Description:
three-stranded antiparallel beta sheet, 8 helices, about 240 residues, globular, alpha/beta
Amino acid sequence: MAVETFDFSRLLEHIKQYGFGEVQRLCYRNFTTELVLAEMEIVGRSRLPSFVIDDDNRFAYTNIARWLAADPAMEQYNPETGSVEKGDVNKGLYIAGPAGTGKTWAVEITQYLCRFHGLKFRTYNTDRPLEIQDYRADEITAEYARTGDLELFANEKVLAINDLGSEPPETLYMGNRVNVLRQLLERRGDDPSRITLITANVPMNSKRLLDTYGDRVQSRLRAMCNNLVIKGKDRRI
Length: 237
């Protein structure tokens, strides 16, 4: 009896061409980390004359610049040990730090430079704009309380969630109480074609984050975001 053979070449070629939706950041000639850092200072001071990149935020801004430039030298903090390790420009960002240290402003500067330079990323073999849509965590829960729908936030290709942890732990809709951000982060963490940026007052590995969102979210955050920290005192005082 003849052994039937199958030709999987078309399937393998399709996988090679389209993959599974993983993000691939695109590099740009002459778009270097040094240039981006200089631009960050210009953008920062144009709105806040007191803005400065100093010892408390230099690691974060340097590696956000590397992220923007798709520089493979990007680094992050290991969430467990706090040691510096290799980052991944294809992942998002988790920026932690005390209140008032400039985490949200760091995201806004990043958002501005993405638009200014028309930066893109590739997923499913398609180039897409690296345009960051940003919302406060409590804005997301308020919208869910009004509509019961997370699709807008779940489907954004590049989403920034500011002040994670400042939202109500549960949101009431049609008699049901839901931890909205837990659901949203689980959905985005399961989709490799999405990029998520987060600012929070709590570290990625904190017990408070674990207690609020559960180990599934904490695990997904480690997989989907580079862990950065801005230190220091409240700069708004």
